[in-house]
Amino acid sequence: MSHVFAAAAPPLSPPAGLPRRLLDVSAALWLALALGGQLLFAAYLVAAYLLPTLQGRLESWNLKLPKGYTPGDAWGNALVGLHLLFALLILVGGALQLLPPLRRARPALHRGIGRAYLIAAATLAVGGLLLVWTRPALGGLGQHLGISLNALLMLAFAGLAWRAARARRIEAHRAWALRLFLAVSGVWFFRLGLPLWLMWHGKPVGFDPKTFDGPFLTTLAFAQTLLPLAVFELLRAARRSARPAFHGAVALLLAALVLLTAAGLFGAFHMLWSPPL
User: Fold this and answer.
1) Neighbours of 227 (CB within 10 A)
2) Which of 17, 22, 83, 211 could form a disulfide with 251 if both were Cys (CB 3.0 to 4.6 A apart)?
3) What does the CA dihedral 195, 201, 203, 207 come to, rounded to 10 degrees?
């Protein structure tokens, strides 16, 4: 699993002992945990939205998604439904794309899924922009801007990954594809960050749970995209560095993020996902 991040930032110098190995192991652990957590989120989407939709119970969308289903609004309901469907497909597709055995054993399938992933990501981004500005539910302007930034970066990364692939710049393509994966995962990071905050404080702090607006949620709306990308660039810099101290520091950061991600998954499962599952 460490090969995924390694391919995006090949080292300029040989591995430097234990700190470098810890760096690769920490990155692999986080990625494995993230993929498992995203598949859990995908299972939640199936249980909470896909199955009720197939049963004709569209009103059940509103149990977890304010204004998810609005009687008489065929266009808006279709947009929400397609957005949820593409979110489900992209979660599963992203997990498949990041499996090294699939890339090695079935390169043609890997390329096919990759093309579909890029198209789905762009579609998801455009749909998200339409929803947040034409059918706003809860949340304030700050959150809408954070979501819009996420969508615009998804479009940019998808285009850059596509262009690099067509030019056969494989390392650049993988780097842009991983940035896209992290941006696409923004909604998942948000759903980990909120339970972490609530578990830490024991109650809503920094936002109004009725309006779902406040400085914390505005900050989280931007952090869901920018923080993972910043950590990824730090990891790439560490892999290119020959300094063991740098390797060790980033490895410790990633180890801490493994623990935070596990805690966030625990909170998200018990607070958000477990009832439908």
Assistant:
1) 16
2) 22
3) -80
The structure tokens listed for 217 are 């949620």
For the stretch 96-128, pLDDT in tens is 888 878 778 888 888 899 999 999 999 999 989
Q: Take residue 100 and report the two structure tokens written for it.
A: 């090294």
DSSP state of 202: S
Is residue 172 within 8 A of residue 142, CB to CB? The reply is no
Q: Supply 221's token pair.
A: 């709306």
Under a CB-based contact definition with an 8 Å cutoff, are residues 121 and 160 in contact? no
Can you tell me the distance from the alpha carbon of 45 to that of 127, in angstroms, rounded to the nearest whole number? 17
Tell me the per-residue pLDDT of 164-178, one tens digit each, with 9 for 90 and over. 999 999 999 999 999
Phi/psi at 205 (5° precision):
-130, 130
Burial class (CB in 10 A: 0-12, 13-18, 19+), 54: exposed
Instruction: Give residue 116's identity as a one-letter amino acid code.
Output: A
